[in-house]
Structure formats: structure tokens, C-alpha cells
Give the backbone structure.
Amino acid sequence: MQIIESVAAMQQLSFATRRSGRTIAFVPTMGFLHDGHGSLLREGRRRGDLLVLSIFVNPTQFGVGEDFEAYPRDLARDRAVAEAAGVDVIFAPRAGEMYPAGYQTYVDVERLTLPLCGASRPGHFRGVTTVVSKLFNIVQPDVALFGSKDYQQLAVIRRMVADLNMPIEVVGMPIVREADGLALSSRNAYLSSSQRQAALCLSRSLRAAKELYGAGERNVATLRERVTAIVAAELSATVDYIEFRNGHSLEEVVVADDQTLLALAVKIGTTRLIDNCLLGEG
Ligand SMILES: Nc1ncnc2c1ncn2[C@@H]1O[C@H](COP(=O)(O)OP(=O)(O)OP(=O)(O)O)[C@@H](O)[C@H]1O
Ligand SMILES: CC(C)(CO)[C@@H](O)C(=O)[O-]
Ligand code: BAL
């Protein structure tokens, strides 16, 4: 496994790989790897000849007062996880090379970025689509893999790839959870053990909404009441949003169907966690 920090060296390897007729699978991450990343890497290993993992804590997608500095980092551990997953190249650029002095170009997806995390984190998706475009230009993947834990991010990237005619297959992967339901997330590392217990209110409330939906409830107001009650029962939980949206357009819905996305963002103490499900799935 190679570790490449230079943009030029990564680009050279990508072009050489494609010229030789080999395919490239790409998993972009911010590091501090867990088995959610592991599932993307395993699928990437299956789909490409060269498997590239990027590790870059992207400053442009963090707002003022967010956790850019505190974001967990452990390159030594990530190396071991990547090696075990069969990664060929870790691309870990420095921020100064991705955003040198004079940098002023951004990619913006319009409507899909307005609600949900886009509303709570102004500028977040502009940072994501910008860095992902740059990474795509550097790594030149045939296929790129993203997790549906970040459901809106996946939808926004699919839109960007279609709108900008990027010749890349975007693959969305299911959410990997702990045995008790908690969605794996690098930010879970911020939680104390009591907060870790409280954080189960996210997955528990998704399950309850799915059960209610499965029993025939279609009224979003009723479904929302159930979810809100479960989250509100946790003293350390503060709701950022509880939203029922069309799983494709992300427009708000009042009558649920199988394609309705239930998306949550909840702060446990100061740690903001997200989770989601489609009401008709599973
Ligand atoms: N539990 C999970 N299951 C499947 N994919 C996941 C999971 N968690 C993260 N991913 C995916 O891994 C990729 C990299 O995400 P990232 O490095 O931000 O990890 P993260 O755990 O989501 O971190 P954060 O704490 O910032 O939410 C994204 O495509 C993301 O959707
Ligand atoms: C896609 C991504 C690597 C861009 O920085 C990030 O948003 C993430 O880890 O989901
Ligand atoms: N997992 C998406 C990256 C972020 O929260 O900034």
C-alpha cells in the first residue's frame, strides 16, 4: 500500500492506471476509520482494479464554531485498517495543497442543499461538493462509493455528477450499525458512555417510526410525534431537525409512502449526530 500526499503524484498514478486500461475505485473519507468506511472499502475492492482511499479533513465544509480542529485524527490506525481492507493507495493531501493561496473556485448544488444539514450547516455542502470535485479530478475514479448515513450528501453528489457530466458511477452503500442500532460515525468517539446510551434514541426512534408506518400509519404529523417523544425522553438530546422528505427530491411530505425519508440530526451534549431511514425499507 502506498501513501501519497502530493496532488501531482496522485494524478500521475491515476492517469497511468487509466491509460493501462485498469479501473479505479475511490472511497473519500475524513479518516478515523470504522467499519462503515470498511464496508465502502470492501465494495470498492470488488469494483476496481486500483482501490484509492482519501483521508482529508476538509476545512471548507466546516462552519465557524464547528469541530474542524477537534475532529478525530489517527493516521497510524487508519493505515492499518486500510491495509487490512486491501487499499492500494491512501491519498492524504495537505490542506495547503488543496487550497493554496489565491484559491477561489467553488461548486454549488442549489435546491438539494437547502434543507436538512444544508439549513443547519450553511456552506457545508458547498465545501463538500467543491472538495469532492477536486478529489474526482485528482483521483479520476471510474466508481466512487459513499454511505447513506450521509443521505443528503449522497443525493447532492449524485446530482453534481449528473449535472456536470462527470463520467463516474456513484455507488450508495447501506448504513452500518453497532449491534444495538447506533450508526457508526467518527464523531461517536466524542461520546461518554452515558451519552453513548442516550445516542440510541436516534436509531430507536427510526425503528419506532418504521414500525408505526408498517402498521399502516401514513400521517406524517403522527409519525413525527412518536419520533419527537422518543428523542425528547433523553435529557441530553437536543433536536436539530426531525424531517420527513421525499427520498429523491428531498421535498417535504405530509403523507408518507415507501419512498419517504425520515432524517434526524440530534445533538447529544455537544456532539451532533445524524441518522436516517426510508420508511418502506427492510
Ligand atoms: N455507519 C456508516 N455506514 C456506512 N457508511 C458510512 C457510515 N459512516 C460514515 N459512512 C460513510 O463514509 C464516508 C466518509 O464519511 P466520514 O469520514 O465523514 O465518516 P463519518 O463516520 O460519517 O464521520 P462523521 O462523524 O463526520 O459523520 C461517507 O460516504 C459516509 O457516508
Ligand atoms: C465526502 C467527504 C469525504 C468530503 O470531505 C466527507 O463529507 C465525508 O467524509 O463524508
Ligand atoms: N460525514 C460528513 C462530513 C461532515 O460531517 O462534515
